[in-house]
Amino acid sequence: MKTHNSKSVKVQNTKLVIEKLVELRETSRSDLAKLTTLNKATISSIINELIEKNIVIETDKTYKTSGRSAKIIELNKNAGRIISIDLLTNSIYGIVANLYGEILFESKTHIENIDFSYYLKEILKSVDDLKSNTHDSDYGIIGIGVGVYGILSKNKKIKFATFTSWKDIELKKIIEDYTGIKTYVENEANISALGEKIVYHHYPNLISLNIGIGVGMGIVIDDKLYTGQDGYAGEIGHTILIPNGKKCVCGNYGCLERYISDIGIEEKYYELSNKKITINKFINRYKNDDKYAKIVYNQFIDFVSITVNNICQVLNPSAIIINSKIAEEIPETISLIKNKMRSQIVNLELLTISSFKHKSNVLGLTHILIQDFLDIENYKVPA
Fold this sequence. Notes:
Arc Repressor Mutant, subunit A; Nucleotidyltransferase, domain 5; five-stranded mixed sheet; 13 helices
């Protein structure tokens, strides 16, 4: 029979207390004792140590309970800073956040050349810019997160980025060598899935379907990220939708990505109207009853509905979160997809848009790094 020594018990109790503080943001020692079922002496000892480490602060706020005034304690949101960066085809978007995941500073750098040597210089410039705007905190920068639109190996080497010719790039090592700061590099769909799992923590099997520059899928099974044997799981954008269809950058023909990604939508609109537009202009034209935009949008609904159905049949998730500018900006999108779901064997509990919306990658990264810094397993943030 296994037994736990006093040190390991204390570590677990400390994690439990921090988990509750992350979830509640602020509370009292007495309420923590009730919520964790730990005795008041244990709670006081843990809180005092966390205050000494500047992880927790005791505020001037009080509230009365049973005739007594209790001091309010809270997680010290300024204990550390997180840098999160999203690598896009034509820009680099980065933020600095605190331990509540609140954005303190953000920057966007336009990219004119996607060749890796040029792009890398811009990444490092962005890192320097973000570092200079982190401001003072007790632990400084606790981590750098980078979201990549591409395929990563198990050791997080970029094997293939769909919008560039990048191959076998060790971006994690490059940034760590440059900054001396622990860096987390991950596929954007996986980031989204982990970020959404923090919000929808009561769904053990969850899918994040990202539709944007490309089409990717982050998979959470039994509360854990699933990446497959080589780390490539979730590349649903490169499953075949139309046999012998449009050629894809992956080498195949008729890939889903060629039809429902932002680029695919823009190309389809051009085929019908002979007019080049951006995804934002497409959305505006749809809202203004443009006949070509309505045709393209209806096809988008059909194809995304097929995709959602296929995901349900293969993986049987309890929740699918769609991260898409079209779904975000056109409110009826989710209900139209649901109306297309007619299978009697699909039992999907939740189909909705991303809670992080267009900042899902950077905010997902931020919360992943906060969880890693606090070293807790049950990371839940206020809704």
